[in-house]
C-alpha cells in the first residue's frame, strides 16, 4: 500500500456559472411594471494552496477527481443566484503544477501560495441588468459559462537545503536520525528508504533542513533502482553531502568507486533550465561507520585521495555520533553562504512589469482556413467566444443582441478585410465552435416585431390624454354636432323632408 506519492494527475471540473433570469415585475394596477430578472451566480474556482503540514500527494492519488460548486440560477424580483464555493486543495511546499502536455504552469515553492488552477464559470446577466433606455424590456437573459475542465499534473520536489546521496544502506537515514529529530525507517537491507525523509538541523544560529533520498546504484539514470525516480527531490537543494559506506561487505565496492558511480549518475540527471547542475553545487563527503575498526582504517586510507580531488572530508559514525558536530556546522556554513548568494541574486533580478493591454487592440483574430468544403473564417478571442457561450440561440432577441455586440466589436469589418463574402462559413471558437453562414449585416426575426428591439408596447403605460388634448377633442366633437344640425336645417328648407300629407316639415 502506497504511503508516499510525489506525482499525481488531477481530473478537475470547476463550477459552472448560473443562468440569468427573464422576469417581469407585477404590481397592483401594473401587471407589467418592468424587467426584474436577477443575475446567475459565478461558479466556484479550484485553487491549490501550499500547506507546510502536508508532505505527500497521497490524498489526491486516491481521489483524483475534484469538482467545485456550480453557481445558482437568477430569480425574479431582482434576486441573484448564489455563487459556488471555491474548492481549495492543500499541497506540499515545493509542488510544481503542469498541464496535461507537461508544460509547467506554476512552481509553488513558498508556504501560503495560492494558485487558481481551474477558474469557475461566469454567471449570466438577467434581463434587469440588460435593460437600457433603448432596450426597456429585454425578453432574454444571458446564460452562464461553463467552468474549466481538464487534467493537471502535480509533481512534488522536496524543498531542502542539503541532500544526502549515496549507495543503499550507506547510512543516510541513520545520519538524518542522528542530526535531527526525524525518525525514518532504518534497517540492514538495501532500499529501506522508499521515499524522501526530511529532518531539521540546528547548528548554532543556523537552522536548515536535510533530505534523505532513496539510494542510488549504477545505472540509476537509465531507470535502475529507486534513486532516479526521486532525484527530482535533489533539484532544490543548495548543497550535496555524499555519504560513503566504509564498512560494506559487498565485493568490488569501496568508497572511491562508490563516489565515482554516484557522480556519474548525478551528471546524467538533467535539471530544469535556469538551475545549477547538480555537480556544480557545493559538495561535502562523509565517510560513515568509522565505529567499525576496519572501516576506520579504510576511511583514513581513502581520505587523502578524496581531499586531493578538492573535497572536504568528514569521518563520522551515526552510532557513536563521532564527527557529527563538525559536519553539521560545515553544512550550516554552506547553507548560509547559499542563502546570502540567493538574496543578492534576488536584488539584481529584473522586476516583472505587467503592462495593460493596448486600448486599440481588437481582442480577437479572424483567420481564413481552407478545407475540403471551402474556406472557413474562424474567429478566436475571449470576448466573442464568451458571448457565444452566453447566448440562448432558441431566443431570436438574444441572437439579435449577439449580432449587435459582434458588430460593435468590429467583427464584421475584420471579416470583410479577411475576404469574407455573403454566405461564407464563419466559426466562432475552436473545434466545437458555433458555425453559421455570414451575412454583411446580421439580422434576426426581430424586425418582424412591430415595436423596436428590446421594447414592448404593453409596458408603455403613458396612455392617458392630457387636458389640452381632451379640450381639443371636446371642441371638435361640438363642432361636428353643430355642423350636423345645420345640414339638417338646410335640407328641410330645400323641401327634401316631407310629412305624410305631402307638405314640407
Automatic annotation (TrEMBL):
Instruction: Please report the stretch or stretches of sequence annotated as the OCT domain.
Output: 356-440
Gene name of the encoded protein: obgE
GO MF terms, alphabetically ordered: GTP binding; GTPase activity; magnesium ion binding
Subcellular locations according to the entry = Cytoplasm
Q: How does it assemble?
A: Monomer.
Q: Where is the Obg domain?
A: 2-159
Q: Which family does the record claim for this protein?
A: Belongs to the TRAFAC class OBG-HflX-like GTPase superfamily. OBG GTPase family.
* The protein's Enzyme Commission number: 3.6.5.-
Q: Name one GO cellular component term.
A: cytoplasm
Task: Provide the binding site for GTP.
Answer: 166-173, 191-195, 212-215, 288-291, 317-319
Function text: An essential GTPase which binds GTP, GDP and possibly (p)ppGpp with moderate affinity, with high nucleotide exchange rates and a fairly low GTP hydrolysis rate. Plays a role in control of the cell cycle, stress response, ribosome biogenesis and in those bacteria that undergo differentiation, in morphogenesis control.
The protein depicted here goes by the name GTPase Obg
Swiss-Prot/TrEMBL keywords: Cytoplasm, GTP-binding, Hydrolase, Magnesium, Metal-binding, Nucleotide-binding
Report biased composition (Basic and acidic residues) as residue ranges: 469-505
As cofactor, the record names:
Mg(2+)
**Source organism:** Humibacter ginsenosidimutans
Biological process (GO) annotations held by this record are: ribosome biogenesis
Q: Tell me which Pfam families the record gives.
A: DUF1967, GTP1_OBG, MMR_HSR1
Q: Where is this region: Disordered?
A: 448-505
InterPro entries linked: G_OBG (IPR031167), GTP-bd (IPR006073), GTP-bd_Obg/CgtA (IPR014100), GTP-bd_prot_GTP1/OBG_C_sf (IPR036346), GTP1-OBG_CS (IPR006074), GTP1_OBG_dom (IPR006169), GTP1_OBG_dom_sf (IPR036726), OBG_GTPase (IPR045086)
Where is Mg(2+) bound in this sequence?
173, 193
Residue ranges constituting the OBG-type G domain according to the UniProt record: 160-336
Amino acid at each position: 500500500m502506497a504511503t508516499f506519492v510525489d506525482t499525481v494527475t488531477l481530473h478537475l471540473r470547476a463550477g459552472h456559472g448560473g443562468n440569468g433570469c427573464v422576469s417581469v415585475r407585477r404590481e397592483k394596477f401594473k401587471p407589467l411594471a418592468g424587467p426584474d430578472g436577477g443575475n446567475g451566480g459565478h461558479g466556484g474556482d479550484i485553487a491549490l494552496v501550499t500547506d507546510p503540514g502536508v508532505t505527500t500527494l497521497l490524498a489526491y492519488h486516491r481521489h483524483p477527481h475534484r469538482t467545485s460548486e456550480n453557481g445558482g440560477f437568477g430569480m425574479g424580483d431582482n434576486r441573484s443566484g448564489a455563487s459556488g464555493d471555491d474548492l481549495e486543495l492543500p499541497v506540499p511546499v515545493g509542488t510544481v503544477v503542469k498541464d496535461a502536455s507537461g508544460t509547467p504552469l506554476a512552481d509553488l515553492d513558498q508556504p501560503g501560495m495560492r494558485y487558481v488552477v481551474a477558474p469557475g464559470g461566469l454567471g449570466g446577466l438577467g434581463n434587469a441588468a440588460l435593460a437600457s433606455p433603448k432596450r426597456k424590456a429585454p425578453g432574454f437573459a444571458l446564460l452562464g459559462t461553463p467552468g474549466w475542465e481538464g487534467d493537471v499534473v502535480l509533481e512534488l520536489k522536496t524543498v531542502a537545503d542539503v541532500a544526502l546521496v549515496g549507495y543503499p544502506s550507506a547510512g543516510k537515514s541513520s545520519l538524518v536520525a542522528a542530526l535531527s529529530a526525524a525518525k525514518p525507517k532504518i534497517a540492514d537491507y538495501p532500499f529501506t528508504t522508499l521515499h524522501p525523509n526530511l529532518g531539521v538541523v540546528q547548528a548554532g544560529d543556523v537552522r536548515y533542513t536535510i533530505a534523505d533520498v532513496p539510494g542510488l546504484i549504477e545505472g540509476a539514470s537509465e531507470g535502475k533502482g529507486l534513486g532516479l525516480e526521486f532525484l527530482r527531490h535533489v533539484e532544490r537543494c543548495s548543497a550535496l553531502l555524499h555519504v560513503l559506506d566504509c564498512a560494506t561487505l559487498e565485493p568490488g565496492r569501496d568508497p572511491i568507486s562508490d563516489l565515482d558511480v554516484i557522480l556519474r549518475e548525478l551528471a546524467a540527471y538533467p535539471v530544469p533550465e535556469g538551475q545549477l547542475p547538480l555537480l556544480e553545487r557545493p559538495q561535502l563527503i562523509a565517510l560513515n561507520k568509522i565505529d567499525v575498526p576496519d572501516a576506520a582504517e579504510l576511511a583514513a586510507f581513502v581520505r587523502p585521495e578524496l581531499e586531493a580531488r578538492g573535497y572536504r572530508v568528514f569521518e563520522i559514525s551515526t552510532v557513536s555520533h563521532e564527527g557529527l558536530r563538525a559536519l553539521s556546522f560545515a553544512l550550516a556554513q554552506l547553507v548560509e553562504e547559499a542563502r546570502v548568494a540567493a538574496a543578492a541574486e534576488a536584488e539584481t533580478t529584473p522586476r516583472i512589469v505587467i503592462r495593460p493591454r493596448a486600448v486599440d487592440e481588437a481582442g480577437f483574430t479572424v483567420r481564413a482556413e481552407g478545407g475540403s468544403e471551402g474556406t472557413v473564417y474562424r474567429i478566436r478571442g475571449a470576448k466573442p467566444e464568451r458571448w457565444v457561450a452566453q447566448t440562448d440561440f432558441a431566443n431570436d432577441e438574444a441572437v439579435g443582441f449577439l449580432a449587435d455586440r459582434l458588430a460593435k466589436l468590429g467583427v464584421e469589418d475584420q471579416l470583410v478585410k479577411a475576404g469574407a463574402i455573403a454566405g461564407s462559413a464563419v466559426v466562432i471558437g475552436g473545434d466545437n465552435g458555433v458555425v453559421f453562414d455570414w451575412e454583411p449585416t446580421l439580422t434576426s426575426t426581430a424586425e418582424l416585431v412591430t415595436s423596436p428591439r428590446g421594447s414592448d408596447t404593453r409596458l408603455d403605460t403613458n396612455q392617458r390624454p392630457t387636458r389640452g388634448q381632451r379640450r381639443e377633442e371636446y371642441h371638435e366633437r361640438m363642432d361636428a354636432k353643430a355642423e350636423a344640425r345645420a345640414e339638417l336645417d338646410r335640407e328641410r328648407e330645400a323641401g327634401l323632408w316631407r310629412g305624410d300629407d305631402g307638405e314640407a316639415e
